[in-house]
Amino acid sequence: MKASEFERYGRQIMIRGFGEKGQRKLKEAKVLVAGAGGLGCPASLYLAAAGVGNLIIVDDDKVELSNLNRQILHWSNDVGRNKSFSAAEKLKLLNPEIRVVARSEEVSRENSRKLVRGCSAVVDGMDNWSTRYILNEACVKERIPFVHAGIYGLYGQITTIMPGEGPCLQCIIPKTPSEVKGFPVLGTTPGTLGLFEALETIKLITGVGKPLVGRLLSVDGEDVNFQMVKVERNPRCPVCGHL
Question: For residue 199, is it within any domain?
């Protein structure tokens, strides 16, 4: 590691069990952030700040004015630009020590396995359930950890999918929830859950702490209430039951 890296990451290197070894693991890691929106922006921002060496930002949408109350990597002068390129530009300015790749494409059943293959972890920054299930299945097939979060209004939830070790998203939510276009959201909600996603991803890579495998954390921002629920694998799950 270079002197500049020791200075940049010095405060986290001090954490017990983290050290230079943990920092090197982050530097060598490759993380896919699927979606550069309300969840993906804060998650990728803190992953970049922590020194994840290879970040891939996937999003084919363009920045809209209505995004700016929560999608913090996009600014007023970015309206009309592709989200993945807008986000990658800011991340490179924050940390020129890392590699950031912007991919302007839609996550689909056809490309999902190729996108996640070889990644250390995949971060769920999506705003629809159909794509989440596609990513979940791709990660299970490729044995890649998948950090899921979802939000609505002042409420959010997060869990970590570790294929073969705990339940997958299909186990936890077997029936696809109804899709809601333009649902209400306060920017601090995806901000909070996105930071938890970054935390989970860093823990997975470095081995520091206990990830949310087999546990679903619900966050109610209205009452500032946190609830942890144990979730279990479904041995008959059509996605991960064979593992």
Answer: yes
**Which pair of tokens denotes residue 223?**
């009452």
Compute φ and ψ for 136, nearest 5 degrees. Answer: -55, -45
Contact between residue 123 and residue 33 where contact means Cβ atoms under 8 Å apart: yes
Torsion of CA 30, 58, 180, 168, to 10 degrees: -30
Tokens linked to 209: 């702490």
The domain in which residue 126 lies consists of 3-153+182-212
What is this structure's pTM? 0.96
Please check whether residue 242 lies inside any domain of the structure: no
> Other C-beta atoms within 10 Å of 49: how many?
16
Which residues, in sequence order, are CB contacts of 27 under 8 Å at separation 6+? 1, 5, 51, 52, 53, 98
Q: How many residues does the chain have?
A: 243
90-119: per-residue pLDDT in tens? Answer: 999 999 999 999 999 999 999 999 999 999
Rg (CA), the chain: 17
d(CA 187, CA 53): 27
